[in-house]
Amino acid sequence: MAIPDADIYPEATGAAKALVERHQAEQPLKLYAGWFCPFVQRVWLALEEKQIPYQYIEVNPYHKQPSFLALNPRGLVPTIAVPDPSTNTSKPLYESSVILEYLEEAYPDHPPLLPTDPYLRARCRIWNDFVTSRIIPALHRFLQYQPSTRGIEGLHQARQEFLSTLKEWSREIHPTGPYFLGEEFTLPDVVLAPWAFRLWVFDEYKGGLGIPGPGEGGEDEEVWGKWRKWLAAVQGRRSSKETTSETEHYLPIYKRYADDLAESWLARATREGRGVP
Ligand SMILES: N[C@@H](CCC(=O)N[C@@H](CS)C(=O)NCC(=O)O)C(=O)O
Questions:
Q1: What is the C-alpha end-to-end distance of the chain, expressed in Å?
Q2: Which residue CA neighbors atom 11 of ligand 1 most closely?
Q3: In which band, very low, low, confident or very high, does the pLDDT at 225 lie, cut at 50, 70 and 90?
Q4: Measuring CA to CA, which of 35, 174, 199, 270 is 20 to 30 A from 90?
Q5: Nearest-angstrom CA–CA distance, 244 and 261
Q6: Domain GST N-terminal, which positions (predicted)?
Q7: Equal CATH topology for 14-106 and 118-272
Q8: Per-residue pLDDT averaged across 160-173, rounded?
Q9: Non-local CB neighbours of 195 within 8 Å, separated by 6+ positions
Q10: Which superfamily is assigned to 14-106 in CATH?
Q11: pLDDT grade, residue 277 (50/70/90)?
């Protein structure tokens, strides 16, 4: 039976709709996507930045169709299907972080999203893991926190804990930026960007996020300055604009999280104090 979360707007809108329409033709690489999903947006950004041909297939992951579960037993988007020359069929891959690494390795002749230096590559992986294992869980603890039952103090604490993860990541941004590693847009930017684009949800539902404005950061002025420069640069990219739908259609989805009613894996993992799926 479909959970209430399944009741989402059925397709991408705005700039993302146009991009989806340009990617309907059959291609060896298929992206099974949900237009609203930040994990999907990671992979979608990478495909666009790397200029890899792909076919976009919209899936509602809250209606777990058997044909989709056959590709990904976890029933999550993003899932991709890649050509299998040995059998002339295709084979699936899932988990956004794994797919991003796969695209780097499988398409070496396309624009890279990881530097060549092994040390820098390893450093990217540390901070990518930090996004998935620290920033996203902290974001969801804040988003799903219910002051009416658990008290307003806890909300302030959840906000501060989330802000401190963003600050820790931002400290690592290249001193002059604008991107994480400097002038090149790379995987650390891709991995965090979809959540950075959705921070308006806190203004909408949680009384604001509280990232200091220019000149208001006190002893953290420099680090928040790097954050602001990073966010503006990432938001300004064509790939970011074209993989983002109209805000009004994200609203009901995030309202369910903000009211702690969502029943996705991630929402339940957050509620039960487990890690990110
Ligand atoms: N760890 C996964 C998470 C993917 C994920 O949670 N996707 C959500 C949509 S944003 C989903 O498919 N949810 C369906 C569900 O929770 O049942 C990844 O990195 O790809």
A1: 21
A2: 76
A3: very high
A4: 35
A5: 24
A6: 27-111
A7: no
A8: 98
A9: 38, 131, 135, 136, 139
A10: Glutaredoxin (3.40.30.10)
A11: low
pTM over 0.70: yes
Report domain extents, the chain.
14-106, 118-272
Q: Which residues contact 3 (CB under 8 A, 6 or more apart)?
A: 62, 263
Q: How much distance in Å is there from the Cα of 73 to the middle of ligand 1?
A: 12
- Kindly list the protein residues whose Cβ atom lies closer than 6 A to any atom of ligand 1: 34, 37, 39, 61-62, 75-78, 95-97, 264-266, 277
C-alpha 188/C-alpha 177 separation (Å) is: 13
What is the spatial distance between Cα 258 and Cα 273, in angstroms, rounded to a whole number?
16
Mean pLDDT throughout 138-166?
Answer: 97
Helix (H, G, I), strand (E, B) or coil at 104: helix
Specify the pLDDT at position 271.
95
Instruction: Give the nearest ligand 1 atom to 74 CA.
Output: 17
State in Å: Cα 153 to ligand 1 middle. Answer: 30
Q: What b/e readout covers 253-270, taking b as 16+ CB neighbours within 10 angstroms?
A: bbebbbebebebebbeeb
pLDDT band at 6 (very low <50, low <70, confident <90, very high): confident
Tokens coding 209: 């996020």
DSSP 2: -
Query: Is the CB of residue 174 less than 8 Å from the CB of residue 233?
Result: no
Q: According to the model, what pLDDT value does residue 88 have?
A: 84
Strand-pair partners of 179: 182
Write the pLDDT tens digit of every residue in 48-90: 999 999 999 999 999 989 999 999 999 999 999 998 988 888 9
